[in-house]
């Protein structure tokens, strides 16, 4: 008999933060998703989706990108259509990276930072960056495909002290 658990299908990850004080460099936060294969679920990502990119098959898309947090509410949004991902992919890790153009900036220096992860109208997670305030990047979610082929969600906030390029290569490590 099969599982009655339908799992997670189509998810939206949104990000909000306050603009920098007048006269200071703009804070630019980015949502990043890394996709991993069955053969290498904790190694190198098969592909990464971030600003100015999308997944090769169109299942993960950055719908809104803010470079300064000047918007109303959630300024940046990414859609993940997990139920459409090919069976070769078994894990997707989502994180937030702070662009470091104006010098080292941590989550603690950015006002009102937070994220929300929803499936339809159901909020799977909503949180801020208090626990990783000294970090420059953080993972916020992990989606894994179980043996039945169903996607499971895990809310995981883990801080990193690194630049965005190094973050994407290490965000999925075990």
The helix-strand sequence is EEEEEEEEEEH
What's the gyration radius in Å? 16 Å
Low-confidence stretches: none
- Derived from helix and strand composition plus strand pairing, the structural class reads mainly beta
**Biggest sheet, in brief?**
5 strands, antiparallel
| Mean pLDDT reading | 89
Tally of contiguous helical segments: 1
What is the approximate shape? globular
Please give the number of β-strands. Answer: 10
Distance between the termini: 32 Å
Question: What is the helix content?
Answer: under 10%
Family: Belongs to the CAPAB/TerDEXZ family.
InterPro entries: Stress/Tellurium_Resist (IPR051324), TerD (IPR003325)
Domain TerD: 5-163
Protein name: TerD-family protein
Architecture overview:
With 174 residues, the protein is mostly beta strands. The chain has one helix and ten strands, in the order E-E-E-E-E-E-E-E-E-E-H. A five-stranded antiparallel beta sheet has the order 4-5-1-7-8, with no helix packed on it. It has a five-stranded antiparallel beta sheet with strand order 3-2-6-9-10, covered by helices on one side. The chain is globular and about 50 Å long. The mean pLDDT is 89.
Condensed summary:
With 174 residues, the chain is mainly beta.
